[in-house]
Amino acid sequence: MELFSEMFSYAFIVRALVVGILVSLCASLLGVSLVLKRYSMIGDGLSHVGFGSLAAASAFHIAPLAVSVPVTVIAAFVLLRVSENSKIKGDAGIALISASFMAIGVIIISLTSGMNVDVCNYMFGSILAMSKSDVVLSVILSLSVLSLFVVFYNKIFAVTFDESFACATGIKTSAYNAIVAILTAITITLGMRIMGALLISSLIIFPTLSSMRILKTFKGVIIGSASISLICFFAGISMSYVYSTPAGASIVIVNMIVFLLFSTINFLMSKRKFIAKLCVFALLFLFTSNVFAQPQRQKKIIELKDKFFIAQISDIYLNTKSYLGKIIKYQGIFKEEIDENGKADAHYVVRYGPGCCGNDMTVGFEVIYNGQYPKNNDWVEIQGHLKESEKDGFPTLCLKLLSIEILEKRGKEQVTN
Amino acid sequence: MNGFIKFQNVSFEYNSVKVVENLTFEICRGDYFCIFGENGSGKSTVIKGLLKLKQTFEGQITFSDDFKRNEIGYVPQIAGQLQKDFPASVFEIVMSGFLNKRKLFYSKNDKTVANENLKILKAQNLKNKPFNELSSGQKQRIILARALCAAEKTLVLDEPTTGLDPSATSDLYQCLKFLNKEKKLTIIMISHDINRVLQDADKILHLQKKQLFFGSAKDYFNSQTAKVFNFYNKEANYGTI
Fold first, then answer.
1. pLDDT, tens digit, 9 for 90 and up, residues B200-230
2. B81 contacts chain A (CB < 8 A)
3. What is the pTM for the complete model shown?
C-alpha cells in the first residue's frame, strides 16, 4: 500500500499508468482478433515501421505522433493487403516491410542528429517520454479504439472466425479488416512510448494466448485477455518502480510469468475450468480494489528521491508549466562553475547520471541563493521555487532557494533512472 | 423463367489455368438446385463465384435486382476443418449467422430463432460447449445451424454431409426439403449423394471442367450424363421422382 501511494505521488507515473492502461486494453482486445487470424507478427512489423517514421519525424523536427500514426496506418493496410494476395506470403511480407523501415530509420538517425533521447526511448520504451499533450492525444485515440471495438464486437467476431462465410453472406469484410488494421496501427504507435518498438508486440500476443489457456468462449477470452493485460501492466510498472528495471521489459516478464502460470493451470485443471475462471476474477478484483482504495495525496513540496531522480527532472523540463512556482526539494552535489576570471558565476546541485548511449551526464538544476553558498562538492539538501531563467540566450530552469543545508552523510551520487 | 442468378458463358481460372469454362445456366427463386461432378470438376469454384468469393475470368454472372447478399446462408466445404484452436462457444458461432442483417447487436428474437435452428439440427445439447472440442460431424451441424440463421431466402451448401453419420445425413436432407418446400428457401447445393438428392431436387447442373448437363432432375435421370456417371448406382431406386 505504501508502495502504491508512493508511486502515485509521481505525476509522470500516473500519466504513464493512464495511457498504459488504455493502450494495453486496446492492444489486448485487438490482439485476440489478430492472434486468431494468424497475424501475430503484424504488431512487431508495425512497431518497426513506427520506429522508422519516428526517426524521420525527429530528423525533420516534426511532432512524432503526427507522423508515425498516419505512416503506420498506411503500413497496416499494405501488410493486410500483402497477406491477402499471397504472391508474397504474409509473414515474409511483414518481415520485408519491418526490416526496410528499421533500416530507413537507422540510416536517417546516422545521417542526422545521431541517437537522441527521444529515439532511444522509442526503441526500448520509457514511461518518461510523455508530455501532457501526448497524454491527451493518447487518451482520445485509445478511447475511440475501445468504443469502436465495443460497437463492432459482434462483426469482428464473425470476420475473425470465418471470413469467407462473413463475406459470402454480405458482411463487408474488407471494411472490418481495415478497421482492425487502423486500430492496431494507432494502438501500436501509442504503446511504443511505454513498451518500446522492440517489445510492443508482446502487449498484443501474450494476454490473448494466456487467456486462451483457460477460457474457451470468444467473449470469455476477450474479457480474460483485457483483465490479464491490465493486471500485467500494473504489476510490470510496479516491478519497474521497485527494482528500477525498464518498464517495457518488466511488463513482458510479468506477462510471461502469467502465461506459464495459466498453461500450468490449464494442464492441472483441464476438467475444472470454473475454478480457473474464478481465480482470474478474484485476482482482478484484488488488484482493482487495491488501486482504488488509495487516496491521492496532494503534495505541496515536490521531493525528488533517489528513485526516478532523472525521470522526474526530465518530466519537470517536459511539462514545465505544471511545476513552475512550486517548491522542489532534493539532495545532491553542490557544484560551482568558474568563469575565465576565476570567479564563480553559476551554482548547481546535481547528481551523476548514465547519459544516453554512453555520454556522461549530470542531472540537476542551477540554484540561486541569497545567503552563503557551501563549498564545491559538498553534499547538500536544498529547497527552492522553480523559476524560468535565461542562459546564453536560451530559456532554462533554475531554483530560487529557500534553504540550503550541508549534510555529513553523502547520499547516492550516481543515479540511473 | 424468373432466373434470379444467371451465368452467361462464365469461366474461372486459378493461376491462369482455366478450371471450368462455358457455364450458362440460371437459378430461379424457390429452386432446389444441385451441382454434381467429380473432384476437381469446378463445383466449389462455381459456388465461390456465385458468392463473389472468386472473380470470374470470362463471362458474366448477373443477379436480379431483388437479390441481396445478406439473405444468403453459406455452408463452406469441410466446415470441421475451420480454425482448430478458435475459442468460441457453439452458441456464439450460431448467433454470428445473424450479423449480415446490417445491425450491430443481437435481438431477443435472434436468440429464439438460433435455438430453434439448433433444435432442427438436433444440436441443442451442444449449445454451451466450446466449438473446438466437438467432433467434425458435430461441427458440421453447428455450421449448418449458423447458415440457417443467415439464410432468409437462399441457402448455399458445399458438400454439407461431409462427416455426418447416416442418420444425421438423412435428417439434413429432410430438413432441406422442409426448408425448400415449406419455407420457400432457394437451395443451392453441391453433393455426391446423387440418388438421395434426386428425390428432392428440381434442377441439376453436372460439371466436368465444362457444363455436361443443365436441366430438370427428371431429364437428368434419363440423360446420358447420369447414366455414365452413375453406372455404379444401377440398383438404386429412383421410383419416387
1. 888 888 888 888 888 887 787 777 676 666 6
2. no
3. 0.72
